Structure formats: C-alpha cells, structure tokens
Amino acid sequence: MSLELALGFATAQHAWSWALLLAMAAKVGSTLALLAPKSGRQWRWVQRHEAPLWWTTKLSALALCACAAMLCHLGGDRPGERFFAGLLLVAVGLVAARVKRRLAD
User: Fold this and answer.
1) Exposure string (b/e) for 87-97, b if CB count within 10 Å is 16 or more?
2) What is the per-residue DSSP string for the chain?
3) Other Cβ atoms within 10 Å of 100 Cβ, number
4) Alpha-carbon gap, residue 80 to 1, rounded angstroms
5) Contact, 75 vs 31, CB < 8 A?
6) pLDDT truncated to tens, each residue of the chain (105 aa)?
C-alpha cells in the first residue's frame, strides 16, 4: 500500500494531503482533550465544548478514511484505495451507531 503525501499548494494531491493532516490533528487533539478529564484533569474549556469535541472525533475519523482513499486513488494505488474505501464504509456504520446511541440518551 502506498500513500503519498505531498504538501504543496498546486494540485489536488496537495489539497487532499493537507486535509488528511488536518483530519489527523483534529482526531488526535479532540480525543486527547476528551480523555483528559477522565484522567483526573478538569479543564473548563473541555467541559464547555464537550459536544463539538465529540462530533470532531467522529467526523474526523470519516475524513481520515476519505482523504486516504482519495490519495491512494490519485496515486494509482488501487488496493490501498479499496482498503480505505472499505474502512470508510465500516467507519460510517460505526459512527452512525454511535450518533444514534448518543441521540437516544
């Protein structure tokens, strides 16, 4: 599997690469922020923004899969493209289940 990042500003591959990196940063940052109170740290900012952070963790997972699939597609890596497209479908199902459960609470 070959996933090539290109961090320029001129092509579609550059745009998808930046989107992938931003989605990664959003996923890691929001997950760490939500886990911090569980480790005994109480951050008021996290408490006030818990709902947007929760949505960020879920939507950034979908964005990661979509960006990776598109980068594989642009790079001609068909097995990688299929892998990440399949992973996106799994992620959509899991996120939908989590959203449904959260809305039911």
Assistant:
1) bbeebeeebee
2) --------SSSHHHHHHHHHHHHHHHHHHHHHHHHTGGGT---HHHHHTHHHHHHHHHHHHHHHHHHHHHHHHHTT-HHHHHHHHHHHHHHHHHHHHHHHHHHH-
3) 9
4) 5
5) no
6) 556 677 888 888 889 999 999 999 999 999 999 888 766 666 788 888 999 999 999 999 999 999 999 999 999 999 999 999 999 999 999 999 999 999 998
CB-based contacts of 18, cutoff 8 Å, min separation 6: 7
Cβ(91)–Cβ(65) below 8 Å: yes
Residue 41: φ, ψ to 5°: -90, 130
Predicted TM-score of the model (pTM): 0.82
Helix H or strand E encompassing 2: none
Whole-angstrom CA distances from 54 to 7, 16, 21, 30 are 28, 23, 19, 7
